[in-house]
Amino acid sequence: MGEAPAFFVDHLENGHHTNGFGVKSEDRDTSVQIGDRSYVIGGSHEGNPLFLGVQIHDKTTNKWSSPTVLGTGPKPCKGYSAIVLKHGRILVIKKGSASDDSIWFLEVDSPFVREQRKLLGKEVVAWSKGVRGNAEKPIVISGPSGVGKGTLIAMLMKEFPSMFGFSVSHTTRSPRFMEKNGVHYHFADKTVMEKEINDGKFLEFASVHGNLYGTSIESVEVVTDSGKRCILDIDVQGARSVKSSSLDAIFIFVCPPSMKELEDRLRARGTETEEQIQKRLRNAEAEIKAGKSSGIFEHILYNDNLEECYKNLKNLLGINDDAPVNGVEVEGINLPKEHTVTKIEDKIMIQETGEATKNNMIVLDLASINGGAPGRTRGIVLDTVKSS
Ligand SMILES: Nc1nc2c(ncn2[C@@H]2O[C@H](COP(=O)(O)OP(=O)(O)O)[C@@H](O)[C@H]2O)c(=O)[nH]1
Ligand SMILES: Nc1ncnc2c1ncn2[C@@H]1O[C@H](COP(=O)(O)OP(=O)(O)O)[C@@H](O)[C@H]1O
User: Could you confirm whether the keyword Kinase appears in this record (predicted)?
Assistant: First the structure.
């Protein structure tokens, strides 16, 4: 898909037009055209006033459709500017919104959306909030049951509580003694979880040791929004799905020193029945093989001596004793309530309008944006050009 020409900002003419659902679009709706399709952004999603609506009009069939909308999108507001970017994204700028909620990307044909469309077998679009600066990449940690993933992650979160946040997965397995719902896992009913997977609420999911596990899009967004670096403890199948998404993570596989040691650790943990231990050990061999040879993981760690392994983990994450470790500051983007938007190459010019205007212009440089749905689009550079 080619990039739209500059100055491509299109508000619906006269603001009123009846769509295929018999719903009147209001004058705060905004539409953009990509090929034969118009994407109309405005109103609410499926009658829910908390979610901004997205509808698609196909010129060739003259039909309207309501796509499945993935990710937590912007809350509806008074008006929007929308502009087509390359790689199947639409930049949506909210008028008169809070500074941490002003810049959004609606992905209509990104690799993530294409993948989800195939998976769910229906029309899909996905929201991703735009943030300034570059947060560190999320971390995916995989490895066989009992190798020490949870232990290593707990050490990292304890030492650097403001830097790392854990993506709390959903699972249909029963909670272990000491495991808390919403902290270690969201313990879920199978039917409910399957429905949510069908509704596109999950970034990835897999059947592991006879239970369903999955990472919801929201669980990743919650961590990213807190300015922390997201850690995902997921199996190899899940890691493969994340690898093909736009999450742009670091992939680490943890190996045991031997199968005998793995078995001893699983038994010593005392959380599984003998039958479950046997199942996990059977699966371990295939997981280790896949972990080492699949090309998914750029780092393999051996967890023999725990302290040494933890030190190696910190090293590969770029944490050493000399470097200060802090959370990432989440900076907002303050935009004028009334404005016009124009685009020249990767730069978006936001010009204040209205009576009390000082004619200052805000420039968003999108040349280095990265990440995207599910999660946040990072790397927006912001500049203010003052009128002389
Ligand atoms: N694909 C996927 N795997 C997960 C998820 N959450 C946990 N897992 C994996 O499921 C497996 C079993 O996890 P768990 O029952 O907690 O047992 P443990 O690994 O022995 O602590 C591990 O390999 C986890 O990495 C998830 O959201 N998605
Ligand atoms: N390097 C290590 N040496 C000995 N025991 C370990 C080591 N790492 C972890 N353990 C222990 O092994 C058991 C399994 O670790 P855990 O973190 O629960 O594994 P996972 O999350 O990969 O299933 C726990 O009882 C933990 O205390």
Answer: yes
Could you tell me whether strands 339-344 and 347-352 are parallel, antiparallel, or unpaired per DSSP bridges?
Answer: antiparallel
Q: Please indicate, yes or no, whether the overall pTM of this predicted structure exceeds 0.80.
A: no
The answer to whether the Cα torsion of 196, 167, 144, 249 is positive or negative is: positive
Active site positions, annotated: 176, 269, 280
Check whether the bond before 374 is cis (ω within 30° of 0).
Answer: yes
**Residue spans of alpha helices (H) in 121-213:** 149-159, 190-198
Instruction: Give the pLDDT of the chain (388 residues) as one tens digit per residue.
Output: 333 333 333 333 333 333 333 333 444 678 899 999 999 998 777 777 778 889 999 999 999 999 999 988 888 887 888 999 988 999 999 887 777 788 999 999 998 899 889 989 999 999 998 988 766 789 999 999 999 999 999 999 999 988 899 999 999 999 999 999 999 999 999 999 999 999 999 999 999 999 999 999 999 989 988 878 899 999 999 999 999 887 889 999 999 999 999 999 999 999 999 999 999 999 999 999 999 999 999 999 999 999 999 999 999 998 866 555 555 555 667 787 788 899 999 999 998 887 665 677 889 999 988 888 877 888 888 888 876 5
Which ligand 2 atom is nearest residue 154's CA?
17
Q: Which residues line ligand 2 (CB under 6 A)?
A: 143, 145-151, 265, 268-269, 303, 306, 309
CB 189 within 8 A of CB 172: yes
